[in-house]
Amino acid sequence: MSLIQVKDVMKIYQSGGEQVRALDGVNLEIREGDFTALMGPSGSGKSTLLTVMGALNPPSEGKVIIDDIDVYQLAVERRADFRSNYIGFVFQQFQLISYLTAVENVMLPLAILRYSQKEQLDLANSVLEKVGLAQKRNRLPSQLSGGEQERVAIARAIVNQPPIVFADEPTGSLDTKTGEEIMGLFQSLNNEGLTIVMVTHNEENLNYVKHAVSVRDGVVDTERRTEVLGGHNSQTNLVSDSQAL
Ligand SMILES: Nc1ncnc2c1ncn2[C@@H]1O[C@H](COP(=O)(O)OP(=O)(O)OP(=O)(O)O)[C@@H](O)[C@H]1O
C-alpha cells in the first residue's frame, strides 16, 4: 500500500535576487514498509525532497499525501501535530540537546505529546534498550561516541512509534564499521514494519535498503527496487531499473 505520495512537486527557493529551482516536478511513491535511499550528487535536491516529504518544507507547487492526508492542506499547528504522530527525523549532526542525558533526550518528543513522566521514562528506557544503549542512558551526548549519539537520535525518532522515519545522511559522519552497525539497526527496525526514507551518499548503504531513488537536478531520475531474500539485501538482488513514474 502506498504510504507517501509526492505529486508534481516543485520547490523554488528565493536566494538573494535569484530563484533556485531545487525540485522540478517530482513524482514519487513510498509504500508502507519500504526502506528507500535517496541518492544523487550534491545540490541535486535530496534534502529538500526529504524535508518536503517530511511535512517540514511546503512545496511551491504540488502535493504530498501521507496516509491519505494532504499534509500541506493542514493548518500549521495541525501539521505540527501530524508530524509528531507520524514522522521521526534523524539528522546527520544528531541534534541532541547537549545538557540533557541520553534518556532525557529520548523523552523529549513524549513530553511534547504530554505523556506522563512515568510513561516517558518507561518508553525511553525500552527504546534505548532496543538500540543497545540501556547501560549508557544517563550519559550526556558529549560522553558518547558518534555511533552512540546516532543511536540516541534514532531512539528519539522512534520513541512514540511513528510509522515513518526520515534520515538525512545518518552515516555521513561515522566510520565504516559504525556506519554498518547503524544501517543494520535501521534494517532491523524496517523488518519490524517501520517505513524509512534516507538520504545517503554511501553506495554501500544500498546493501541494506529495498528501494533506491536517484535524484538529479531536482527530478527523480531512476528508481530501483531490491528484493529482500532471507532478510538480507544485496545489490546483486536488484530486480528492476525503471524510469520513475
Ligand atoms: N534554504 C535555501 N535557500 C536557497 N537555496 C537553497 C536552500 N536550501 C537548498 N537550496 C538550494 O537548493 C538546491 C538543492 O539543495 P539540497 O540541499 O536539497 O541538495 P542535496 O542534494 O541535499 O545536497 P547535498 O548532498 O549537498 O546535501 C541547491 O542548489 C541548494 O543550494
From TrEMBL:
Thylakoid listed as a keyword: no
One Pfam short name: ABC_tran
Annotated InterPro entries: AAA+_ATPase, ABC_transporter-like_ATP-bd, ABC_transpr_LolD-like, MacB-like_ATP-bd, P-loop_NTPase
Biological source species: Metallumcola ferriviriculae
Lyase recorded as keyword: no
GO molecular function: ATP binding; ATP hydrolysis activity; transmembrane transporter activity
Limits of the ABC transporter domain: 4-242
One GO CC term on file: membrane protein complex
Keywords: ATP-binding, Nucleotide-binding, Transport
Name used for this protein in its record: ABC transporter ATP-binding protein
